[in-house]
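Hey, I'm writing a tutorial for new members on how sequence and structure tokens pair up, and I'd like a real worked example in the thread rather than a made-up one. If someone can provide the structure for the chain below, I'll link this post from the tutorial.
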Amino acid sequence: MEHKIATILVTGGAGFIGSAVIRHLINNTNIKVVNVDKLTYAGNLESLKDIADNKRYQFEQVDICDATEIKRVFEQYQPDIIMHLAAESHVDRSIDGPGEFIQTNIIGTYTLLEQARLYWTELSAEKKSAFRFHHISTDEVYGDLEGTDDLFTETTSYAPSSPYSASKASSDHLVRAWQRTYGLPTIITNCSNNYGPYHFPEKLIPLVILNALAGKPLPVYGKGNQIRDWLYVEDHARALVLVATTGDIAETYNIGGHNEQQNIDVVKSICELLEELSPQKPEGVKQYKDLITFVTDRAGHDVRYAIDASKIAKELDWIPQETFESGLRKTVQWYLDNQAWCQHVQDGSYQQ
């Protein structure tokens, strides 16, 4: 790309993956970053505390469904690339209340695409040719894998199971339609399950870590035999920036960690790490694994996800740096070292 990338606008930058992308951009590039985040329950500016005062970082508390405000942000900051991560993403919440997912993931993506199209149309020829709209999605749009050897590829048919994955599938279709119909230069990535530092504690790995440290039950759906491909969030952030800056327009890239694990094995691995790293247990707890509690399975729960990430490896020379073992150890240690962050999330004071 000949045009120098000066500014990247990241939606959902106060979320788990978005904050990792912003930390990576600020710490490893000279690019200016504009963080657009509504600050719902999952948005936490404490996750960006280390870079918040950097001169190349700006924060705008804006809802992506607000066309007027999105237009203002585009005009004010003149971004070269949009990295769209803002989304409602928790499956259980989507089952309990799908409306927010339809609003943010579908209407929000539509609003962002339209404002991006209007902005892009008015750019100079040089800036126009360099512009990218990078939409970050999930492997859950593909639904369930039946065979033990099957993998999701970039051409796997969509078969979403939950209101969450259906809303993300809808947003993927919108992005492709805006590229095909209007020529908007878009790229899509679909990733496997992320884990790592700053992960909101309703998700499996941080929930298990913090519940274990508090002596609370470690809930496992069904028999815990669901298989996920785990991707360390900092590996994902590297991949996303690489795709946004060097990926080909109209392409899709699957990003996975090559780390298939059954949920029950993930929980047991966390317990083993805590025995080593935090042997001082809560009163009444002999072993962390004694806290494992099997609960009624989630409605429509997909059994197996697994990503074929050979395309991004071959075309963009990306492979994950962390194994599941190394990444999980780093993650558990981070939660042990950052109890204040965890406490602020659990008591709600992070939202003040």
